[in-house]
Amino acid sequence: MTKKIAVLPGDGIGPEIVVEAVKVLEALKLQGLDVALEYGLIGGAAYDEAGTPLPAETVTISKDADAILLGAVGGYKWESLDIRVRPEKGLLGIRSELNLFANLRPAILYPQLADASTLKAEVVAGLDLLIVRELTGGIYFGQPRGVKTLENGEREGFNTLVYRESEVNRIGKVAFDIARKRDGRVCSVDKANVLECTEMWRETMTDLATNYDDVELSHMYVDNAAMQLVRAPKQFDVMVTTNMFGDILSDCASMLTGSIGMLPSASLDENSKGMYEPIHGSAPDIAGQDLANPLATILSVAMMLRYSLDEAGMADKVEAAVSTVLDQGLRTADIHSEGMSKVGTAEMGDAVVAALN
Ligand code: NAD
Question: Which domain holds residue 272?
Fold first, then answer.
């Protein structure tokens, strides 16, 4: 049966990089991939046309689809808008409308780009780790929250870290199931020595592990995890953690690879329906100049094939094609180094399609 993909290009470099990812999907259709694309507006582009960063029609198209491909949202033009209609609200809105609770962020370093990292090549060459971050709970959503003024006139700010066992089980299952398809190791990151909520998180993960004899579970405190990520990142296979810890650790992990234009991400719901997007933003500083690296978006298509469309073979092909163009020495400006051929956004996309064929 034909699978539906909602395509939401968004703002800035979003439309340019999504065009290249769609070229890849069109090439795969010629190789037997049975998908239909439907386009929707999101972010500033949606505000300009429909007066809201997340039109109802975009939500309908996305709910109806098997997977969503997103470019990026935001830009200078909309920075002075009321916060309720800023482009970023569209992104947060669609995540919660679709209940995308599991954020998957791989940090993969292609050996051809080992020099792009700020860490020594031997520490990061061959890095392939996946952070599974809980995305719809924890301290970013917990109540009560706010800032109040005390009797002495001093202000006091407060937020609440809260998780239910069911939420921990749900994200834990995602991590364990994925580890089964990788190297079979999960490291659960918490602060169980200080925070009761994450002590419960640790106990729940330990109980869950009894259903996964083939997966090895370890636990690590978040402060140590941050240190280990820059000391010896290759020790990790899958890391699973709370919303806030995952927010911080995944940014740290992404920089191990030194190239924001290379990293894809997925946000999944309970039925493995997902939204796929590069980890970077709309890069308004380089928009419209054929400078953006489309590879993170193309690699997001590979994740979509693997996690939502059940096409692991095609996902492997897309990743191999990206590796081939890097072997050919093709580099967009953000990953360019001496002796390599500098190419633009469109030329890079065309080269990936050629490698696929
Ligand atoms: P950014 O990721 O857009 O850009 C940071 C730097 O990286 C810029 O110098 C940019 O030119 C460069 N860069 C980013 N992607 C690149 C690519 N594919 N190829 C080459 N270079 C690339 O982050 P920012 O500048 O902090 O934010 C710009 C806008 O994007 C803001 O409006 C922000 O709110 C929004 N944003 C959106 C998302 C999203 O849509 N998921 C994520 C982060 C930021």
Answer: 1-108+262-357
**Contact criterion met (CB below 8 Å) for 10 and 55:** no
Q: How many CA atoms lie within 13 A of 13 on its CB side?
A: 27
Same domain, yes or no: 138 and 249: yes
140 carries an active-site annotation: yes
How many domains does one find in the chain?
2
CB of 74 sitting under 6 A from ligand 1: yes
Tell me: pLDDT of 258 over 80: no
Q: Is 21 exposed, middle or buried (0-12, 13-18, 19+ CB in 10 A)?
A: buried
Whether the per-residue pLDDT at 114 is higher than 90: the answer is no
Atom of ligand 1 nearest to the CA of 333: 20
Same domain, 227 and 311: no
Residue 248 within a domain: yes
- Please indicate, yes or no, whether residues 220 and 332 belong to a single structural domain of this protein: no
Longest dimension (CA), the chain: 71
Ligand 1 mutation pick, 103, 260, 334, 348, max ligand atoms within 8 A of CB = 260
Residue range 144-183, pLDDT digits in tens: 999 999 999 999 999 999 999 999 999 999 999 999 989 9
Whether residue 113 is contained in a domain is answered as no
Is the minimum distance from the CB of 286 to ligand 1 under 6 angstroms? yes
